[in-house]
Amino acid sequence: MRTDGVGVSLLWFRRDLRLEDSAALARAAECGLPIVGMYAFHTGDLPADARQHTVVYRQLSILDDAIRAKTGGGLLIFRADDGVFSDALRRRFSHENIKAVFANDVDDPRERERERIMQSICEAHGIPFFRTHDATIYPHDTIVKPDGSPYGVYTPYARRWRERFHIELADPVIPEKKPVWDTTPRQFPTLKSLGIHERETPETVVKIDDTLLREYAQTRDLLDHPHPTSRIGTALAIGAVSIRHAVRRAIEADSQTFLSELVWREFFHMLICHAPETIQTAYQPHLRGIEWGHDERSTEMWKAGKTGFPLVDAGMRELSETGYMPNRLRMLSANFLCKLLRTDWRLGERHFAGQLSDYDPASNTGNWQWSAGIGADSVPYFRIFSPTRQIQRFDPEGAYRSQWLDDEGEIEPIIDYERARREFLTWWKYSVLWKQ
């Protein structure tokens, strides 16, 4: 328990793991009190063996080292799963003389509930809780239709987003006062002590190459290209870099295609704020009653990259080994699971959430619903990707497949593509369309 009589500001880190260009940190600095950074792991959102826990842990270690180099103090890190988060916070409040709490927003319905818990505890202690917009360029209620309702289609949303954008919106947030960190020594926990399983993950990329941005439109879908994408997704997902930085880099390089991908991220974040229930159910209400199938053996073969469709399998194996998969193959693999295996999209979404280093709740949910044909601006139900055609277009020489498929020999396909395609279209027609 603190006995020095000095109050502190609590900076609640979540998906904003950086010490620069942070709206909440700038606001906490203005308060003038020493700052204590806090992060809580939650294994209710992601399982204990989810790869992103390791990514977050390593980024927290970088932040902790930087803070210790300045003051000798350190971050307050603990695990608090749902059901015990409230008690965990109360224990921290009883040991720290907290005078104010600051946090950047997180576009995740589960975090909204934790914010309500934080707000309640702050009110009980008579201290303010400041929540600052930081996750996107625009707050979720800014780019909307004239009647105030959210856009359900990307193109008009993106058009409006670009019309309103000006470069100052991407300026970094610079504190008017230099942050002063609390000097109280704190022990940095091990992953084992947190009950988190360590996973192999690549280094988080925080810099975006100029050449890549200039060539992004031509290279992003080339599976045999050595550096087809920026790999900045992980840094954005955990907040190691700000969305402002990424947008500014796209503007400076005049990479309209890269900017469009960032606007897609904004679109999905806007949607989940307006329709938080879509973290678990279809965005389109009339499609929420779909009775998806689930063949456990086929689903496990899909997860293991053993479907017998080489491009799907190569992508799933890269995901399993590295925590990354090219966007082109994310769409193919999701389309394959939902339409050719007729499996509930939520099973695929949860698998990706546990495997991806760049897991983002809004984007992952939005993209899976897009692939399943039940989300906002979704791919039509009758559009079913042909794995063979995708090979011809994006990996004709087999360079990508040879990188990720071993020499175990050809695997017997778990389905007949044409038959599965016909059966899905018939099922959707009679089980979905006719019930509307």
Report the end-to-end length measured between terminal Cα atoms. Answer: 61 Å
Radius of gyration, CA atoms, in whole angstroms? 23 Å
The biggest sheet amounts to:
5 strands, parallel
Any low-confidence stretches, pLDDT <50, length ≥5? none
The total beta strand count reads 5
Strand content range: 5-15%
CATH class of the largest domain: Mainly Alpha
Number of domains: 3
* SS element count, helices: 18
The structural class is alpha/beta
Trace the largest sheet across and list its strands.
3-2-1-4-5
CATH architecture of the largest domain: Orthogonal Bundle
Identify the CATH homologous superfamily of the largest domain.
Answer: DNA Cyclobutane Dipyrimidine Photolyase, subunit A, domain 3
Mean pLDDT: 92
Helix content estimate: 40-55%
CATH names the topology of the largest domain as DNA Cyclobutane Dipyrimidine Photolyase, subunit A, domain 3
**Element-by-element helix/strand order:** EHEHEHEHEHHHHHHHHHHHHHH
Tell the overall outline: globular
